[in-house]
């Protein structure tokens, strides 16, 4: 029997990003501590809000352990064969109701916000960006429907940290990207629950990688080996 893994996405947007970047190309990285040998057959059950569960069969192509020299989180790379027929119906259903990727952008500097918003739209054309100049405004629009929150910690440390914590308390939690060039602020942002950290201002290429990674990451991975 193949290994069985349940992969839960927090929003339809998250799944669509994961599909466009990874699944459509025949692969997916799953961050997990489960020890699954390379070459093992695997069944993945993808759960998407309001869209049910869809299964894919794949093969574990490679594995990265916690102490591997190349770094990065532990996990497995899964390869699939021709996912279009298996996911086609689900993708069509999600796209028909797609309302765009919801991004919350908190930065007290108007010029920085404008520049960041332009970069985000260049990376994800469907992004609907809610801009907030201070943490009070950000807190009023931060809900579980936000797909990712980008927070300028340098401009307002305490306010930025408060939003990072509030995002973590949403159900399901909202992925966050903290922007800071201060080493101490960086450590505090990580402690507050930031999923990703970038220098401020972030290089476009780095923002692209981190934004897509934060958006497409599953909210939960539950693995069970056959008994």
Question: How is this structure best described in words?
Answer:
- The protein has 7 helices and 11 strands.
- Helix 1 packs across helix 7 (204-216).
- It has a 6-stranded mixed β-sheet. A 5-stranded parallel β-sheet has the order 7-6-8-9-10, sandwiched between helices.
- The protein has 2 domains: 3-97, Thrombin, subunit H (Beta Barrel); 101-214, Response regulator (Rossmann fold, 3-Layer(aba) Sandwich).
- The chain has helices at 12-21, 84-96, 110-123, 135-141, 157-169, 183-191, 204-216, and strands spanning 3-8, 27-31, 41-48, 52-64, 75-80, 101-106, 127-132, 148-152, 176-179, 196-198, 220-224.
- It is globular.
- Helix 3 links the parallel strand 6 and strand 7 (127-132).
Summarize the structure.
The protein has 227 residues and is an alpha/beta fold.
Features:
single chain, 227 residues, alpha/beta, Thrombin, subunit H, Rossmann fold, 6-stranded mixed sheet, 5-stranded parallel sheet, globular
The CATH class of the largest domain turns out to be: Alpha Beta
Shape: globular
Alpha-carbon distance between the two ends: 10 Å
Low-confidence stretches: none
Number of helices: 7
In N-to-C order, the SSE pattern is EHEEEEHEHEHEHEHEHE
Helix content: 25-40%
The description of the largest β-sheet is:
6 strands, mixed
Number of strands: 11
Sequence of strands across the biggest β-sheet: 2-5-4-3-1-11
The CATH fourth-level homologous superfamily of the largest domain = Response regulator
CATH topology name of the largest domain: Rossmann fold
Structural class, judged by helices and strands?
Answer: alpha/beta
| CATH-scheme architecture of the largest domain | 3-Layer(aba) Sandwich
Radius of gyration in whole Å, from Cα? Answer: 18 Å
Instruction: Please tell me the total number of domains.
Output: 2
Q: Strand share of the residues?
A: 25-35%
The averaged pLDDT comes out at 90
